[in-house]
Amino acid sequence: MLYDLMHKNTVVARIDIHESGAIDEIVSVTSPAHLPIGTTLDGILDKDELEDWWIGRSIPASRTGIRDFLEISGIRDTTSMLTRSMGLSLSDQYWVKPVDQDISWERINFFDNPFSADVGNLLFGRPITGNFDFSSPDNTSDGILRKRWAIVDGKRCLIKSGNPPYYQEPFNEVIATMLMESLGMECVHYNLEWVDRIPCSVCDDFVDRDTELVTAGRLTLNTEDNRPVSGLDKFRTQCRKLDLNVDPFLDRMALADFVMMNTDRHLGNYGLLRRADTLEWIGPAPVYDTGTSLMCKSTTEYIESIIGMSSDVPKVPSIDSLGSLDWVDMDAMRGIMPAVERMLLDAVDEVPDYGMTPGRADALISLLNERMDLVEKAVAPSSRPLRRTCRPSSSGGRRSS
């Protein structure tokens, strides 16, 4: 079936999409400047690259609970869901319009118009009654964690749960928010909420009807930079070509990842914002997706075993890679710890079945204090003794009454 690939109301290209969701053919290109970043080779739209971008918009097969979702919904795979919601997203303004239909972006975009909760409800294991409505931005949400979009008080909010058995990722998102906001960093603000007695992180959409996210992976794809360097270095180079100085932002993000022991800062987890109408680059997107941190997939016993040796844990940024730390306010950083302790111990009391035991809460608090100790030694190696704002509870992790 023929579709026009749209960027808001700009016709970008005409493409033939198979009923499976795959792109059969590129018929024509109308507005080359508005093509999705990373889909051209030598300035020409490449079918394989465009299809990779298109399929990359669908829910990944690794998403928690996706097999049950496909079975219940009667869908063969998630790629075929894309055209059922015209490929609309809450991360950018691209979509596809059947060539025989007269539809404006203003009429159907999810930033301004309501959308169905059916896909999100089913992804969270909730039963669906009546006819199933696929008109949802959940069709184009990436990542492996169970997640859904919702409209709360008129705002578009993303709700993410954690992975069993510890369900720790939502707590990590909130701790990272506390940490980065204490240091004045631009970051997405995550709150902790309980959905069906499962902890979830909730954040407002940091993209609006006029702006969009371009990930570092998209920005560095198919560039002329063939040096054997990291993706991060290629991202810095591309940003310099756009007259954007992202070094201070990236240095601060690295500090947060060091403290949080984040092992998942891949090229899809940071990027730039730009204006969809003018294609003007705005600057770095606020830091987001810090859930895979603080040894969230490890047993409590393993976390306890590395306390005192966390500087040697693989896949975590080293203190030597952080550059100058003169900007770090240690008092502000340590000031988050009482709130962190309260949140973790409240989780122990509220939902003891989901992995946040008193021992795990204490281990995470000790681990965070140790990471801050390492930063303080680098900031002021001999100017003052290390000071901790709070320590693990001596009452087995539970609050005294």
Question: Would you mind describing this structure in some detail?
Answer:
By secondary structure, the protein is an alpha+beta fold. Helices cover 29% and strands 17% of the residues. It is built from 12 helices and 13 strands. It has helices at 47-55, 66-73, 105-108, 118-123, 169-182, 216-219, 231-241, 247-260, 300-306, 330-334, 337-350, 358-379; strands at residues 2-7, 10-17, 23-29, 40-41, 44-45, 94-98, 147-152, 155-161, 191-195, 198-204, 211-215, 271-275, 281-284. The strands form 4 sheets. It has a 4-stranded antiparallel sheet, covered by helices on one side. A 4-stranded antiparallel sheet has the order 7-8-10-9. A 3-stranded antiparallel sheet has the order 11-12-13. Strand 4 and strand 5 form a beta hairpin. Helix 9 packs parallel to helix 12 and helix 11 (337-350) packs antiparallel against helix 12 (358-379). The radius of gyration is 22 Å and the shape is globular.
Radius of gyration: 22 Å
Number of strands: 13
The portion of residues forming beta strands comes to 15-25%
| Structural class assignment | alpha+beta
Strand order of the largest sheet: 3-2-1-6
What number is the mean pLDDT?
A: 89
Distance between the termini: 65 Å
Q: Encode the helix/strand succession as letters.
A: EEEEEHHEHHEEHEEEHHHEEHHHH
Unreliably modeled segments: 391-401
**Biggest sheet layout:** 4 strands, antiparallel
**What is the 3D shape?**
globular
- Overall helicity: 25-40%
Task: Specify the number of helices.
Answer: 12
